[in-house]
Design goal:
By secondary structure, the protein is of the alpha/beta class. The protein is built from 14 helices and 16 strands. Keywords: Isomerase, Pyridoxal phosphate.
Length: about 450
């Protein structure tokens, strides 16, 4: 569709009164149609903080928590029996679909043979070989979560470089890693405490530097004094709104890290959606270390971090030079037999060309449908895509950095989109307008989302 055939862009905001009234209607609709979830939410208030086993589970715009009865493929069923086309997919944990058969079978078989021994399972050699083949780095270690893996990698990086500082991008997400839970002061560029973080007493902002994403000048300035052990980065920002790298950014950033002796660590927990082997393998990047969690073993708690032979040699020297005792790296359940069984099955049956072909087929249809609807109505909104992942952004251009996202943020509109679609059988992630397609996502799931999106735009008067 050519731009000169489209209606003029309409940049007027949705009136706050109309949006508030629509949100009130949707909240009432949810309560009326979800009595079982409402009752479970009331019961859980007695024994769980904020009424949920993890307080993040309340970070959705619905008036009470949606309780899940089952999940399979690209759908989940709630306690009230409603079925949803799931484009959240456990915020990437179920990127390959809920309970993929190969992984479910491997878990069931291993559960009868032992869960954890704090010794390597007999399949460990095969899994190491498969990790190297799939993701391109020769040496590996396991963790329970990507948060753990990132913590361990930063500890290794400081140990082998002798440098105290780490560097992250403004708007990054690396899980519950204290070093990364800091903010950038937009006025001075200084790293400051993040006010939302509870119980912080250590001066992490004194040892972490934060620069804007896609800003090579700021990156070089932060690296110039030779004090940065590692740049820990997502290949694209994914949890602050989807922000892709500018053309040529990563090639230049990788060269800067090498010039200044800083280790490049890519956290691909969310960017596994880019293609087989993740963003780095798809775009021929060469990180020193590489991290993935969530979906890497099909959704069972497991994470991995890989590294080059040179980094492995430096790790060995650092460990051998240290006194005996706890290194601060590793947990008792790490690399348990159940995780290895799931990981082996996922590497063989999920991280494949066939999986990504199916994921991208659904993502192509979804992207086309969203853009066609925006263009037809002349709406100045953007769909930003990264493989099987995309985000609807209420801004007229693809964001370049976190400040871009902040300037255009419309949290009330996002919340209304989420609840409106949820009431019509479509689940998005609770943050922003991110949508993820799995191999099980089919034409009917995409059509359900697009039909609900049409209804939402009509309800907004668009």
């Amino acid at each position: 569709m050519m731009r000169d055939t489209l209606p003029p862009l309409r940049d007027e905001p949705v009136p706050a009164e109309r949006l508030a009234a629509l949100q009130a209607q949707e909240r009432e609709r949810f309560l009326t149609t979800h009595p079982a979830s409402h009752a479970l939410a009331a019961r859980c208030q007695h024994h769980y903080l904020f009424g949920v086993p993890l307080h993040w589970m309340r970070d959705w715009p619905n008036p009470v928590t949606l309780f899940v009865r089952s999940a399979q493929g690209a759908e989940l069923t709630c306690a009230d029996g409603h079925r949803y086309a799931d484009f959240c997919l456990g915020d990437t944990g179920a990127m390959f679909g809920h309970s993929p058969p190969a992984v479910a079978q491997a878990i069931a078989a291993q559960a009868a043979q032992g869960l954890t021994c704090m010794l390597p399972d007999a399949r460990a050699a095969r899994v190491g070989e498969a990790l190297a083949e799939r993701f391109g780095l020769p040496c590996w270690q396991l963790a329970m979560t990507a948060s753990d893996a990132n913590r361990f990698v930063l500890r290794w990086a400081r140990a082998i470089t002798g440098r105290p500082q780490v560097l992250v991008f403004d708007g990054c997400y690396h899980g519950a890693v204290d070093d990364t839970l800091v903010d950038r002061d937009p006025a001075t560029g200084a790293t400051v405490r993040r006010r939302s973080v509870l119980g912080g007493v250590h001066d992490h902002h004194a040892y972490t530097r934060v620069v804007p994403f896609n800003d090579l000048a700021a990156l070089e300035q932060a690296l110039a004094d030779g004090q940065v052990a590692a740049l820990l980065a997502e290949p694209a920002l994914t949890n602050f709104g989807l922000v892709p790298p500018q053309p040529g950014f990563w090639a230049a950033a990788q060269a800067l890290c090498r010039r200044h002796g800083t280790l490049l660590v890519l956290d691909e927990t969310h960017t596994l959606s880019s293609g087989v082997g993740g963003y780095a393998r798809t775009h021929r990047l060469q990180p020193d270390l590489w991290v993935a969690g969530k979906a890497v073993a099909g959704g069972l708690p497991c994470a991995v971090y890989g590294f080059t032979a040179d980094v492995a040699a430096r790790m060995r020297r650092a460990k051998e030079a240290a006194p005996d005792g706890h290194s601060g790296i590793g947990t008792t359940l790490t690399a348990n037999a159940l995780a290895l069984a799931a990981l082996e099955a996922a590497l063989a049956y999920l991280h494949t060309d066939d999986s990504y072909t199916a994921m991208n087929r659904a993502a192509d249809a979804l992207e086309h449908g969203l853009l066609e609807r925006l263009h037809r109505r002349g709406l100045p909104w953007t769909v930003t895509r990264l493989g099987a992942r995309m985000e609807l952004q209420f801004m007229p251009h693809t964001p370049r950095n976190a400040d871009d996202v902040r300037r255009h943020a419309q949290p009330a509109l996002e919340a209304n989109l989420h609840l409106f679609l949820l009431n019509r059988g479509v689940l998005l992630t609770p943050f922003h307008g991110m949508m993820l397609c799995s191999p099980a996502t089919g034409e009917a799931h995409v059509a359900r989302l697009l039909d609900a999106f049409d209804a939402w735009l009509a309800a907004l008067g668009r």
